[in-house]
Amino acid sequence: MTREEIRKDLKNLLSEKRFEHTLGVEYTSACLAMRYGADMEKARMAGLLHDCAKYLSAEDKIAYSKRYGMPISKYEKKNPELLHAKLGACFANVKYGIADPEILSAITWHTTGKPDMSLLDKIVYVADYLEPNRNQAPNLAEVRELAFKDLDECLCQILEDSIKYLSNKKSTTDPMTRRTWEYYRIYRMRNQEV
Q: What is the pTM of this model?
């Protein structure tokens, strides 16, 4: 499918607000790709498809995950909303014909992150957090500015802010998000020592 055909399909599947967010992530991913020398077309496609499974109910997310043989962690069983990222990569491949492993990885990890993310992984993760339609994240103005100065530092700040936010809400943080934060916290400390 072409990007235009995918966009039309997503417009029919997603709520208006989610579709606007999707276009914002596509746009922001392209901007960050230009800034950091990543493949802009891959960034646009990953940004466009990052939430392509978001419209499914919790029950459907679990059912599709089982159908495609995807492992479901204990945390994901309790919070099936998180499955939209892995399912999104699966749908991008099966439904939309995307075979590029970099794009599929960026879709898979856009919610929790993972240690040692690729440049495209980081771009879509950051774009999802700060695209123009977002307005409630902590330190948003500073994070947006930082995104175009130092992507790794921005990633660290987003992870830190996300963990603080979940902690203040008395919510449990996904173990992968915590591992990602710990990895980049150590990365940040090493870079500050240099």
A: 0.94
